[in-house]
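Progress against Task 2.4 (sequence-to-structure conversion) is shown through the following example record, which the project officer requested during the mid-term review.
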Amino acid sequence: MLSSEYLQAIVLGIIQGIGEFLPISSSGHLVVFGALFKELFGGPAADKGENALLNVALHLGTLGSILVVYRRDLRFVLRDFKLCCWIIVATIPAAVIGVLFKDQIEATFEKPAIVACGWLMTAAALWYAQKLGQNRRDLSEMNARDAIAIGLCQLASLIFRGFSRSGSTIAGGLFLGFTREAAARFSFLIAIPAIGGAGVVKIGPLLWHALSGSQNSHELANLSRDDIGAMVVGGLVSFFVGWAALRWLLGVIVRRGVRGFAVYCLIVALITFAWQGVEFSRSLDPADSVSPEGGID
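Structure tokens generated for the chain above:
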């Protein structure tokens, strides 16, 4: 029978693989489903370092999937100097703010109610982007203003947890008049430096501390065999699920648009708000604070 560590890694790997590229916020799903997993299985919350490392493994898995699926596009991009520049320009806002305010941004990472607010933002952005977008420009028409605007959309997804990265950037592209295919392709292309950079920011210092023998290397040194195995399994699951999701997603967006994803984000936001409301009411119930010995905890 699978241990809880492996089961959690598999479930979160599936969520990450599906959610990273679908405009529904993979990070938001990891927060909410991770909290639900802990509640259902009981016990104390996992160590934050282990959670962060598992999160890195899951994101690296989806990074591998996008490199495989978009390998031909990447060869084309490398020959298109202007498009390379626009990808870099669109990446700069989130990269700079992500490095400078890493701790403040991560402080909101484990709050499902904040994620639900982000899902509402995603739903609104996707719904009105499809309604108002002109759906006529392709990537050859992109300019610096477009790249900056989409980069700011990506930055907003970093600041507001649950505001989907792909959802915000696809919506940004649609608002700027790009076709659904062009908006989605650019969103997926700028995901490569975004996901890779996030992994480097987290795992880089840990590896440095481990190699230098620093006392801050405990996050790696304290990992058990099951922890490492779970990270490997989670990364592999997110790779294969992400690969399948990517091959399916572009066709769906081109044919049907993004309103279905907007409706989904609205539904999961409302469910999460309801769940958090129940949890809050329980915390106010005096009966829940009485210890077995009859005292108050």
